[in-house]
């Protein structure tokens, strides 16, 4: 007798009945760029994404909640930057004000704060920059790891004080999760989880984000602290294990699309929730292809997000979140 797998693909109802992977808005995290201005400014390199005022960020959170998306992640864009990134840990900083406003207006939404310095430093790096003696060119500058830990810890505490439900350290400094966990606990925020950017690569896919956040490095490069794309599985496991041992509550892989094998590896090796970051370049590539008529945007986005889930992601940070939630609501098949 011939096996006939096609029997279970014959109708939408049969396909839905037998699906192993389910995609739902509750798995999405909606990113919001918040700037100091009172307007909404479209981002040219990320069609459909804008820099928002605090009031508009609140509206975005309302919209996400109405679509069944439970979480937002905030990225701040300050007017003033300095070498220490002091706006990141200022109690009146843009992320702090946005987090407080969203929690006051939509308390059901989980507010995640990106915990980094790159959007706030005048040089665009994720920590305190120092010159390397005897080096020239891009290698003449590096981020001084240990002094940066104190600033990251201060940032996390400030964000928690403002009402952030989760802090998400993304600087890739050695020991950052441990420093942040200790600082949160000491300040009375033992209940605030740490969503660790555990496996974060020095990727070409971040280009549109750096335009959106104004965080392109002015000197040096981030390859001295972000991971080598060819680093392999041992490096990924080591980074994830260190964050888990230091108290991370979730582990993130960034970017997601080119690193599905790494995402799957973390799912097998760790019992913590795993987050996929569907980054700006991945988003903009699909937008550009769809605008040119090369691809069907809805089908491509949902297939991509389903791929993240199949690889093991429990949650997905994606700039497609609002659109994907609408598509799933209006036409779940």
TrEMBL record:
It comes from Deinococcus rufus. The keyword Lyase applies. PANTHER family: DELTA-AMINOLEVULINIC ACID DEHYDRATASE. SUPFAM superfamilies: Aldolase (SSF51569). InterPro entries: ALAD, ALAD_AS, Aldolase_TIM. The keyword Lyase applies. Pfam families: ALAD. GO terms for molecular function: porphobilinogen synthase activity. Its EC number is 4.2.1.24. Belongs to the ALAD family. Signal peptide: none annotated. The gene is hemB. Keywords: Heme biosynthesis, Lyase, Porphyrin biosynthesis. Homooctamer. Pathway: Porphyrin-containing compound metabolism; protoporphyrin-IX biosynthesis; coproporphyrinogen-III from 5-aminolevulinate: step 1/4. The lineage of its organism: Bacteria, Thermotogati, Deinococcota, Deinococci, Deinococcales. This is Delta-aminolevulinic acid dehydratase. It catalyses: 2 5-aminolevulinate = porphobilinogen + 2 H2O + H(+).
């Amino acid at each position: 007798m011939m096996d006939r797998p096609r029997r279970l693909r014959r109708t939408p109802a049969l396909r839905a009945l037998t699906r192993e992977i389910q995609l739902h808005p509750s798995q999405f995290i909606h990113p919001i760029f918040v700037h100091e201005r009172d307007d909404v400014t479209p981002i040219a390199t990320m069609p459909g994404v804008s820099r928002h005022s605090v009031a508009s960020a609140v509206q975005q959170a309302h919209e996400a909640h109405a679509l069944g998306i439970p979480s937002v992640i905030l990225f701040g864009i300050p007017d003033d930057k300095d070498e220490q990134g002091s706006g990141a840990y200022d109690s009146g900083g843009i992320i702090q004000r946005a987090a407080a406003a969203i929690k006051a207006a939509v308390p059901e939404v989980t507010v995640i704060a990106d915990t980094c310095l790159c959007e706030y430093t005048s040089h665009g790096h994720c920590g305190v920059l120092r010159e390397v003696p005897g080096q020239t060119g891009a290698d003449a500058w590096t981020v001084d790891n240990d002094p940066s830990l104190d600033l990251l810890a201060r940032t996390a505490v400030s964000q928690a004080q403002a009402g952030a439900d989760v802090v998400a350290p993304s600087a890739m400094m050695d020991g950052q999760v441990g420093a942040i966990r200790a600082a949160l606990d000491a300040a009375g925020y033992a209940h605030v989880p740490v969503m660790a950017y555990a496996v974060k690569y020095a990727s070409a896919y971040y280009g549109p984000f750096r335009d959106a956040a104004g965080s392109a490095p002015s000197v040096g490069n981030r390859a001295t602290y972000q991971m080598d794309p060819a680093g392999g599985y041992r490096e990924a496991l080591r980074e994830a294990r260190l964050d888990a041992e230091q108290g991370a509550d979730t582990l993130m892989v960034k970017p997601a699309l080119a690193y599905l094998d790494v995402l799957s590896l973390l799912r097998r090796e760790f019992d913590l929730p795993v987050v996929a970051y569907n980054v700006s370049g991945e988003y903009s590539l699909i937008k550009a292809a769809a605008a040119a008529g090369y691809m069907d945007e809805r089908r491509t986005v949902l297939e991509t997000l389903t791929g993240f889930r199949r690889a093991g992601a429990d949650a997905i940070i994606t700039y497609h979140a609002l659109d994907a939630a609408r598509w799933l609501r209006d036409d779940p098949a």
